[in-house]
Structures are given as structure tokens and as C-alpha cells.
Amino acid sequence: MRLYMDEVKFCPNCGIQLIDVEKFCAECGINITENFEEVKVVKNDEKKRFKINLGKYGKLKVFGTLVILLVVFGVGSNWYNTKEHQVQRIESSIAHGYTKQMRNNLIDLSGKKLSNSDLKALAELVKHDKNAKKSIHKQLTSKKGEIFNLREKGKIMGFFPRYQAEVTSMCITVETDAAYPLMYVDGKKVVAEDDYYGDYEINRIMPGIHKLKIKGLFSRYSDQESKLTVTPDMKYIIE
User: Which domain of life is it from (predicted)?
Assistant: First the structure.
């Protein structure tokens, strides 16, 4: 019988590697043919033990990697979602006028997101008013801010408290000589209450630099667009 490397690898007596042998081991002279089954059993057992050991090692390696990833993710999430870092991200989005981030970070008094026009008006105010930009952090970290107040709204990943900045709406008074005026802020009609002295009060308008248009009778300014700046300390501004 002729034996090959894929059938027999080692001599069962002396352990030498067998290469293309006929019948007897060249090292110790044992009859390989008579011990052929024994050689095959030894070879298969060794392969099986090797495969089992390799499988256990692979599982432990995968498990260890998953544990490390979970720990890193947990530590990173804890750091990223702390109250301090959330406040920093909210402050940065407002200070730089990033309206996309502001949309996710800002809400009105009813808990709803601000409209695009309100976000743009607020971004314009912060851009042109240095005092407004400087006061953002102070307002977010104080108990009561004139424009911004930090509120806890829901959870992040079901665990970390989520914070958003609540924007306080304003009430302004507009003076006009137009009779029966209709007022539009950023292209949208708003309700203006007459105080019977020629002043009209607009409630719940967001702070910012808006565009105001008044349509009415007997006024040379009718249908002209003006800049309307709304801040806590500026309630009567029309240009």
C-alpha cells in the first residue's frame, strides 16, 4: 500500500513526519501499513483538538472586542450627552446662526419647534447684536433668562436627559397712522389689537430682526416693508 501526506503525517512510534513512504518508517522501521488506522486516528484527533481550541479562542476574542466597544461607546456617550456639553452645543448653534442645529435645539413656550422665519430672524439678531450673543451662555445657565431658558425635554437613547432651549416670545406695540391696518410679519398676517390711541399690539412674536409690512388707508407708508427688531428691552421699533 502506498501512503501520502494527506493520509499519514507522522509515525505513531517515533513521531517523525512521513513523506511518501511505502510500508516501513525510514527512522524506526515500524510497519506503517499495520499501524495505518492508528495513524489516521491520531491525526484526526489532533485536528479536532486544534479546531476546538481555535473556536473557543475566536469566541473569546469576539466577546472581548464587543465588551471593549460597549465600554468605549458608553463612556463616549456619557461624555457627549452630559448637560454641560449639550449646553455648549446649543450655545454654539445660536451664536453662529446655524439654523439647522437651532431647529433641533430650540422650542417655543408650547414645546414646538420654531418656524424657519423665526429661526432666521433670531439668527440675524444674534449676528448684529453683540450683547445678545454674549448673553446666551448666561441665560442658558441661569434660572431665568430674558430670551433663552434651558428645559429638560425627554431622553436621549432612553437614558440621558435631553435639554433644549425654550425661546420666550415677546409682545410689541406698533405705532402707525394707517386706518384699519393689516399687519404682516415675515410675509404672514398677524393679529394686531387696537388700543384706540393709534397703537397696535402684537402678541407672541419671537425675538429677532423681522420684516414688517403694514397695509391700510390714508398712510404714505402703507404697503412698505420695514425692519422690525424685537428684543426684551426694545418694544417699539419700526424703521
Answer: Bacteria
